[in-house]
Amino acid sequence: MIKATVYVTIKQNVLDPQGSAVQGALHSMGFSEVGKVRIGKYMELELDTNDRSEAETRVKAMCEKLLANTVIEDYRFELSL
Amino acid sequence: MIKATVYVTIKQNVLDPQGSAVQGALHSMGFSEVGKVRIGKYMELELDTNDRSEAETRVKAMCEKLLANTVIEDYRFELSL
């Protein structure tokens, strides 16, 4: 079994309203040192395979087709046995 | 400036309906090798400080008070200059 950890983040030049909201909330709670906040997704997938290179191809396809919106999001992933 | 990377994940024994939905979607798209899927949040915060130990205390407080719901979620974070 291979475990894939996928990180999906909003591209640098795309507005992140969720991040801005969290930044505002932190400021109003007294955490005035907080600058830019960016929020993304973190996913853990268990894959029923032991072929690392196949897993890499398949996870890339999953990211492109479902897990990330590649118009506005970047993704990266790590595989571990 | 210190950059904090925060990972918020749902606790092991808590149901993750978003993860189940993603698993179902991946199966219906032909990714039948996908087992358990767990979805969490990934946050990048810029902190206007250079005091690492102070930043650690402050980010811990932010997680406890706002970023994570510690009843059902775990969190961990990394700091980098």
UniProtKB/TrEMBL annotation, chains A, B:
Keywords: ATP-binding, Cytoplasm, Ligase, Nucleotide-binding, Purine biosynthesis. One of its GO terms (cellular component) is cytoplasm. The keyword Transport does not apply. Pathway: Purine metabolism; IMP biosynthesis via de novo pathway; 5-amino-1-(5-phospho-D-ribosyl)imidazole from N(2)-formyl-N(1)-(5-phospho-D-ribosyl)glycinamide: step 1/2. It comes from the Bacteria. Its EC number is 6.3.5.3. It catalyses: N(2)-formyl-N(1)-(5-phospho-beta-D-ribosyl)glycinamide + L-glutamine + ATP + H2O = 2-formamido-N(1)-(5-O-phospho-beta-D-ribosyl)acetamidine + L-glutamate + ADP + phosphate + H(+). Part of the phosphoribosylformylglycinamidine synthase complex involved in the purines biosynthetic pathway. Catalyzes the ATP-dependent conversion of formylglycinamide ribonucleotide (FGAR) and glutamine to yield formylglycinamidine ribonucleotide (FGAM) and glutamate. The FGAM synthase complex is composed of three subunits. PurQ produces an ammonia molecule by converting glutamine to glutamate. PurL transfers the ammonia molecule to FGAR to form FGAM in an ATP-dependent manner. Belongs to the PurS family. This is Phosphoribosylformylglycinamidine synthase subunit PurS. It comes from Paenibacillus hemerocallicola. The lineage of its organism: Bacteria, Bacillati, Bacillota, Bacilli, Bacillales. The gene is purS.
